[in-house]
Every structure is written in C-alpha cells, then in structure tokens.
C-alpha cells in the first residue's frame, strides 16, 4: 500500500513492529507432518467477475450480537456467516445468519447477487462443499436463476480452498482486531462483536491491494477505477461521538444548560 501511494512512502521500507494482538490472533497449530506436493488443479480459467464464485459457511458457538437502532430488543443472535468469494477478483461478501437453515442460506445467496447486480455483475456458477449447499432449496434457487453449481468430493474441503482460505484469513484478522480492542477498551468490547469484526475485516480485504498487485478486488469486481478512501478507515471498535442534533442543525444551545 505504501508503494501504491495509499500510505506514506517511507513506510514501504520500515521495520514492521511486533504486535501482541497479531501474535495471539494469528497463532495456529504447527503441523506435525510434512504435507505432500500440491497437485490440485483449477476448476477452469475465469476471465471476468461472476464466472465462478466459491461459497462456504463459518459457524461459531459464540453468539454474535444483533445490533439494533430501534424497535424491541431481540434475543436472537448470529451464529453463522456465509461467505462468497469471486474467483476472478477475489472480492468476498459476508452474510450474517442466525442458523444454517436452507431458507437463510438462500437469502444469503439473494443478498450476494443483489450486491453483485448493483455493480453490473451477473453470477454464473457456484462452487461449494457438499452439505447445506446441496439441499433442494439451494439447488432450486441456483436453477431458477439459470446458474450452475459444482461440489467438492466427500471430505475434500481442499477443493474449495479459495473460500476456506478467505474464511481463515478473515477469522484471524477479526480475532486480532477484537483482542486489540479488548486490551484498549475492556469495558465495552466483548467477543460477541465478532459479526462486525469479520465484516470490517472483509471490507479491508476488498479495499486494499493483494500482494504484488496494484488493482483492488473491489475495482476488479466492479470494473471501476474508483478507489475507496482509506483515510476514512478507523481501527475496529474505536470510540465515536455523535453530534448533538441541535448543533448539527446550526441551532444555538441553552445558555445555562449543557
């Protein structure tokens, strides 16, 4: 990002400091055996956004908060996130769900396709694991839109590696941001904010360049050269302040009041 001019140029050659939250959030178990050579082939070569999209689901036992601005507070909680990853641009889309039911999974598909349509992209093919995506409701939803779908082999999750890797990357980045925020503001930040942490990290993935590339995933997917304004990005869970409504409208406040 520094080489592309998104960050100050001097940061391109600076020493990256150690971050305790990153070390904890991105820690993984070291494999005790050496993996063999990777001989996996590709589904097919994609040349445009929407030609092939990998989809998978992230499930967690930690209930996620459903934020509300109005209405009666709900007792329902997020427990699932369906993640779509476009093979051409590597743009990803996250849809939060309360369960893994076929109905909510189909709603996730519709939400992603509406998002893609807003950028002029038509989804043509899905690639998924066997399971919820092989249910009758999802298959019928795919056929209704004249799309196609392919599946991984039984217990061959590596065949859906694009979605699996994106889930891992977003999950590690979200865990890191929550750990950092908890350290800075322990009274306000809890693990139940994970739905917003993963959506925030997904926004960062879509709005920053991949290593060795100057074009952003959101630019490739939308076929537009309009870059997001990264100066508007702030650390996850940082405090914000809302301007008083009267002051926002230019009215004067009470002379002796607060």
What's the gyration radius in Å? 21 Å
* Ends distance: 44 Å
Shape: globular
What is the N-to-C order of secondary-structure elements (H for helix, E for strand)? HEEEHEHEHHHH
CATH 2nd-level architecture of the domain at 48-68 and 75-224 = 2-Layer Sandwich
> What would you give as the CATH superfamily of the domain at 48-68 and 75-224?
Ribonuclease H-like superfamily/Ribonuclease H
Q: Please, what is the average pLDDT? A: 88
- As for the CATH topology of the domain at 48-68 and 75-224, it is Nucleotidyltransferase, domain 5
Topology:
Elements: H1 20-25, E1 53-64, E2 78-86, E3 92-97, H2 102-117, E4 125-128, H3 136-144, E5 148-151, H4 161-184, H5 194-207, H6 217-222, H7 245-248
Helix pairs in contact: 2-3, 4-5
What do you see in this structure?
- With 258 residues, the protein is α/β, with parallel strands linked by helices.
- It has a domain at 48-68 and 75-224: Ribonuclease H-like superfamily/Ribonuclease H (Nucleotidyltransferase, domain 5, 2-Layer Sandwich), CATH 3.30.420.10.
- Helix content is 31%, strand content 14%.
- The protein is built from seven helices and five strands.
- It has helices at residues 20-25, 102-117, 136-144, 161-184, 194-207, 217-222, 245-248; strands spanning 53-64, 78-86, 92-97, 125-128, 148-151.
- A five-stranded mixed beta sheet has the order 3-2-1-4-5, with helices on both faces.
- Helix 3 links the parallel strand 4 and strand 5 (148-151).
- The longest helix has 24 residues, at 161-184.
- The chain is globular, with a radius of gyration of 21 Å.
């Amino acid at each position: 990002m520094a080489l592309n001019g998104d960050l100050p140029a001097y940061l391109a050659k600076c020493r990256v400091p150690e971050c305790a939250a990153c070390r904890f959030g991105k820690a993984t178990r070291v494999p005790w055996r050496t993996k063999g050579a990777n001989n996996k082939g590709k589904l097919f070569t994609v040349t445009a956004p929407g030609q092939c999209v990998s989809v998978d689901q992230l499930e967690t036992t930690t209930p996620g908060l459903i934020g509300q601005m109005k209405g009666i507070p709900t007792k329902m909680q997020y427990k699932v996130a369906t993640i779509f990853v476009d093979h051409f641009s590597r743009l990803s889309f996250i849809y939060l769900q309360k369960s893994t039911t076929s109905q909510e999974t189909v709603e996730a598909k519709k939400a992603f396709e509406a998002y893609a349509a807003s950028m002029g992209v038509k989804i043509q093919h899905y690639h998924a694991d066997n399971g919820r995506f092989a249910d009758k409701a999802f298959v019928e939803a795919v056929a209704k839109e004249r799309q196609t779908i392919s599946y991984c082999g039984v217990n061959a999750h590596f065949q859906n590696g694009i979605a699996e890797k994106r889930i891992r990357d977003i999950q590690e980045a979200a865990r890191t941001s929550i750990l950092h925020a908890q350290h800075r503001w322990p009274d306000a930040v809890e693990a139940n904010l994970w739905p917003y942490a993963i959506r925030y990290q997904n926004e960062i993935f879509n709005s920053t360049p991949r290593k060795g590339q100057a074009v952003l995933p959101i630019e490739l997917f939308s076929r537009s050269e309009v870059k997001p304004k990264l100066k508007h990005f702030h650390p996850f869970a940082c405090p914000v302040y809302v301007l008083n409504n009267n002051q926002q409208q230019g009215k004067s406040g009470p002379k002796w009041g607060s």
